[in-house]
Amino acid sequence: MSNKSLITNIISLLILLIGYLTNQQIVMFCGLFAFSGALTNWLAIHMLFEKVPGLYGSGVIPARFEDFKSGIKTLMMEQFFTKENVDRFLSNEMASPAQLDIKPVIEKVDLSPTFDSLIEVIMNSSFGGMLVMMGGEEALQPLKQPFIEKMQNAISDISQQDAFKEALKDQIEQPAMFDEIRSTIEDIIDQRLNELTPQLVKEMIQKMIAAHLGWLVIWGGVFGGIIGIISALITA
After folding, report:
1. How many angstroms separate the CA atoms of 34 and 235, rounded?
2. Any transmembrane segments, and where (predicted)?
3. How far is CA 1 from the centre of its chain?
4. Are 171 and 180 in contact (CB under 8 A)?
5. DSSP labels for the chain?
6. Is the whole-model pTM more than 0.85?
7. Is the per-residue pLDDT at 233 higher than 80?
8. Cβ atoms 105, 85 nearer than 8 A
9. pLDDT tens for residues 137-186?
10. Are residues 173 and 95 in contact, defined by beta-carbon separation less than 8 angstroms?
11. Spatial separation of the C-alpha atoms in residues 167 and 172, rounded to whole Å
12. Whole-number mean pLDDT of the chain?
């Protein structure tokens, strides 16, 4: 993202300088509006992950890390570990408990509600108003598939923990005791989630979507430049 943003800002600034030095109003307006659009979008993306002194609403991702943790737990307990999924899993794996693998179950679960919940948290925050000016929820839709893939990988990693597997193995001979199995799994998830910090949550989400957010800066510069040209033609 940083490369896309830097290149876009440099190009738009060069166009602005060329227009100013050559006294070409259309070129200058194009560069000015492109630079302002790219810079504004870059700042908005930066404010998602970092707290900026004096800018209310910045740092929304780390500030909402408790909501993020709660969302992961709710997702796993209400989507993955329903009675139907546990019964199906135990039936399939009963013959070979030493090779427990719930990755096929994870791949079949629809993670779209998780992404939608993250978007809702962002839009309901003080950052939502600024995001509306950049295209609102639609601007973040290209990030949906990368986010879902990263979530699947993260959940798969948790399911491969030895403690997680041992908990299932210990209970696999008593598949009817769903409540006890679910409680054990919930305790393990709580323990793992309690190890998360705001910094870790921020880094997780950055790795998921930051590279794709760079395009917001590019399009901010492009549309800003177009608006600048139109403005110059109108005022000419």
Report:
1. 17
2. 6-22, 29-49, 213-234
3. 14
4. yes
5. -HHHHHHHHHHHHHHHHHHHHTT-HHHHHHHHHHHHHHHHHHHHHHHHHS--TT-TT--HHHHTHHHHHHHHHHHIIIIIS-HHHHHHHHHHHTT-GGG---HHHHHHS--HHHHHHHHHHHHTSTTHHHHHHTTGGGGGGGGHHHHHHHHHHHHHHHHTSHHHHHHHHHHTT-TT-HHHHHHHHHHHHHHHHTT--HHHHHHHHHHHHHHHHHHHHHHHHHHHHHHHHHHHHHH-
6. no
7. yes
8. yes
9. 776 777 777 877 787 777 777 777 767 766 666 665 555 566 777 777 78
10. no
11. 9
12. 75
Rounded CA-CA distance 236/230 in Å is: 10
Write out the two tokens for 22. 């050559």
Tokens of 83: 């009675």
CB–CB of 76/186 below 8 Å? no
Query: Hey, what's the torsion of the CAs at 5, 11, 15, 20, to 10 degrees?
Result: 70
* Token duo for residue 92: 């399939």
Q: Which residues contact 60 (CB under 8 A, 6 or more apart)?
A: 47, 48, 121, 122, 125, 126, 127
Tokens of 171: 């209970």
CB atoms within 10 A of CB 23: 8
Token pair 């738009």 is found at 12
